[in-house]
Amino acid sequence: MKVWQENQLQTLMTNQSDHQLFQAICERSKELGFDYCAYGLRMPLPLIEPKVFMLNNYPEGWRKQYQTNNYLAIDPTVQHAMHSLLPLIWTDDVFVQARSLWEEAHSFGLCFGWAQSIRDFNGVVSMLTLARSNEPISETELNTKRIEIAWLTQIAHEGMSKCLKVSQLMPEVSTKLSKREIEVLQWTAVGKTSGEISEILNIAERTVNFHINNLITKLNTTNKTAAAIKASILGLL
After folding, report:
1. Which domain range does residue 108 map to?
2. Could you tell me which of 91, 149, 141 has the C-alpha nearest to residue 117?
3. Sign of the alpha-carbon torsion through 186, 191, 193, 197
4. At how many degrees (to 10) do helices 179-189 and 205-218 cross?
5. Separation between Cα atoms, residue 35 and residue 163, nearest integer Å
6. Could you give the strand order of the β-sheet that contains 125-132, starting from the edge strand earlier in sequence?
7. Tens digits of per-residue pLDDT, 37-90?
């Protein structure tokens, strides 16, 4: 197991582009017994239509169908990834609310799949999906390969975040807030006014407003409410 992990770390360190890294991930997925591989990364911002990045080696016809029908919006595996870090095995029950997606996926040979998601401290969520045309995923295989696939998902996330320069796409992630700024934002987030915050923290109201203006600038927002929301999403509070 240690040797296998070291090989994955080597993959992360030697692949400099997203496509090179994805090809390496696909090769590892084949070693694990899967013909198809898909990787998706979702940024936490903006709240409306957040940035999404996807790569896969699915059949071209299925990729076109998925995009044309906007299956991303109803894909239950994606919805699962947003709320759980537990592995998800494709079953009829999983796709009960997305029958057309499930049936069309089958028609392209995507019959058995394993989805594993990860969320980092910046709120970035990614999911690695491994799939194949035959041989269901047994309980034994699930238990045997759980650690390897979780590790591969971690490597994919770290590597893709680096290749895509996620830190540059979300410069606010590296924002440093002072203890006082965090306190002001926390009270702002629960609906306190500047006057109320000044009383709670025993500082002048103009000082509270000074911190709020600095926070709006640091977090690149238009008002204090938006600043509190963004800071919360990015884990700065």
Report:
1. 2-169
2. 149
3. negative
4. 90
5. 24
6. 52-56, 36-42, 125-132, 112-119, 88-89
7. 999 999 887 777 788 899 999 999 999 999 999 999 999 999 999 999 999 999
**Residue 237 in this model has a pLDDT that exceeds 80:** no
Lookup: tokens for 195: 């006057």
Residue among 92, 64, 89 at smallest CA distance from 77: 89
Record the tokens describing residue 187, joined without a space. 């009270």
DSSP letter string, 76-119:
HHHHHHTT--S-EE--TTTTTT-HHHHHHHHHTT--EEEEEEEE
Instruction: Kindly state the helix (H) or strand (E) to which residue 6 belongs, with its residue range.
Output: helix 2-14
Mean pLDDT of 192-215: 93
Nearest C-alpha neighbor of 63 from the set 97, 95, 37: 37
One domain, residues 202 and 112 = no
Structural tokens at position 38 = 């898909």
What CATH number should be reported for the domain holding residue 191?
Answer: 1.10.10.10
Q: What is the largest CA-CA distance in the chain?
A: 68
Query: What is the average pLDDT value for the chain, to the nearest integer?
Result: 88
Amino acid occupying residue 72: L
pLDDT per position as a tens digit, 77-136: 999 999 999 999 999 999 999 999 999 999 999 999 999 999 987 788 999 999 999 999
Give the chain's domain count: 2
pLDDT bucket at 169, cuts 50 / 70 / 90: low
For residue 107, report the phi and psi dihedrals to the nearest 5 degrees.
Answer: -65, -20
